[in-house]
Specification:
It is built from 4 helices and 4 strands, in the order ββαβαβαα. By secondary structure, it is mostly helical. The chain has a single domain, classed as Rossmann fold. A two-stranded antiparallel ribbon has the order 1-2. A two-stranded parallel ribbon has the order 3-4. A hairpin with a 4-residue loop joins β1 and β2. The longest helix is centred in the last third of the chain and has 15 residues.
Amino acid sequence: MAIDIKTKRSKLGRNITGGLAGPALKPFALFLVWQVYKTVNIPVIGIGGISSAEDATEFLIAGASAIQIGTYNFVDPRITQKVIHNIQSYLTQNRIESISELVGSFKYEVK
């Protein structure tokens, strides 16, 4: 929600409220992907604040079997190609044969 203090009306028009997108959403979205991955046995798509291969890889490690890049496409229309290339480089550098090896590979300890 956003309010114009001069007119005291919604800055978003008749909808009044809008969605949250971009980097502010990433930590929460990443947490939710991890929670869903641990709970159900269906493919999970990671969405929210992805603007780099590192972000996308985090979602894969948390349990996403696919990712979606949304808002950042407006910043860099070539981001998808860059992410694919950089994930391929990450796999090669870390001697990982398949992207599926990353899915759900998050290691955590309960202390």
